[in-house]
Amino acid sequence: MSDEPATGAGGGLLVVGDVVTDVIARHRGPLASATDTAADILTVPGGAGANAACWAAHSGCPDVRLLARVGRDRAAWHDLRLRGAGVRPLLIPDADAPTATVIALVDTATAERTFLTDSGAVHRMNPADWSPTLLDGVAHLHLSGYLLFADSCRELARAAIRSARRADVTVSLDPASTGFINDLGIDRFLAMAEGTDVLLPNAAEAAFLTGLPQPADAAAKLSRQFPLVAVTLGAAGALVAAAGEVIAQVAAPQARALDSTGAGDAFTGGFLAARLRGASPTEAARAGCRAGALAVGIVGGRPPAESR
Predict the structure, then answer these.
(1) Could you count the other beta carbons within 10 Å of the beta carbon of residue 222?
(2) Strand partners of residue 238
């Protein structure tokens, strides 16, 4: 693939993925075992799919929709916050499972984080939640990789990809988690991702999926299976690969990191919004890096509503 403008520019973006209640505990230095560790704790809306949708809207995409399952306990709260971020929520309340919850332990000394995850209603998504009519007016479908880690969700993801192929709608996928990929199996994950046009892993996920430690090598290998690959490198920016070779490496703007939660989701949102405006892959990667740099300066995974 050459570094040409996106096709189908100007259409809507549909994200299918996860809405999560994030409990963020910011502590400095190692956790003290078997006793107390002082921390600043807050509860904010999150989820990789929801975060990416919010950052796409923040990055200028005028039509962003999000399909997700939530527990009835938090449905109204999440709906309100998504609308405030410029996203049109298509939330399915689940009577039998709570909204997914993630406890994010953030070391303020390094801005790195560790997640404890209760998937709740996320992994109860199923093919009955999908309809090809959801793609009406949509130019691009983005799937959160968390959909591939439970049987019913996988069936929904495959149905969505098949619908997108028939409707000539492009598809992107965020691999989401090396731990969950390990549980599923690399070969199985890659087979499930067949039909994806754009893969958006971070460096660790790219290395895990390929067995190649160097991000450029991993990106190149993945781009033999997926037409376009953008690998995020944290503070080092991002790599873009197509047809088996790296076609660009872009730098990230300097940023003072407070919390790296959601930085990859911000890259995804910025990247996809730029592509839908007609940007080339390299220009889109720059836009994604700009969004990621903004994200690390914010506690939580989403742009503040007042910054839109």
Answers:
(1) 24
(2) 232, 250
19 neighbors 45 (Cβ within 8 angstroms) = yes
Tens-place pLDDT, residues 35-48: 999 999 999 999 99
**Element at 273 (helix H, strand E):** helix 263-276
Distances (CA, A) of 212 to 148, 216, 225, 245: 23, 9, 15, 14
Confidence (pTM):
0.91
Which structure tokens are listed for 65? 């929709």
Of the pLDDT bands very low, low, confident and very high (cuts 50, 70, 90), residue 9 is: low
Q: Rounded distance, CA 74 to CA 213, Å?
A: 40
Residue 201 backbone dihedrals phi, psi, to 5 degrees: -90, 160
Residues 88-130 have pLDDT tens digits of 999 999 999 999 999 989 888 876 778 898 989 999 999 999 9
Structure token pair of residue 269 = 């949102």
Question: Which residues, including other chains, have CB under 8 Å from residue 107's CB and lie 6 or more apart?
Answer: 27, 28, 29, 30, 113
Q: Which residue has the tokens 């703007």?
A: 253
Helix (H, G, I), strand (E, B) or coil at 46: strand
**What is the C-alpha end-to-end distance of the chain, expressed in Å?**
33
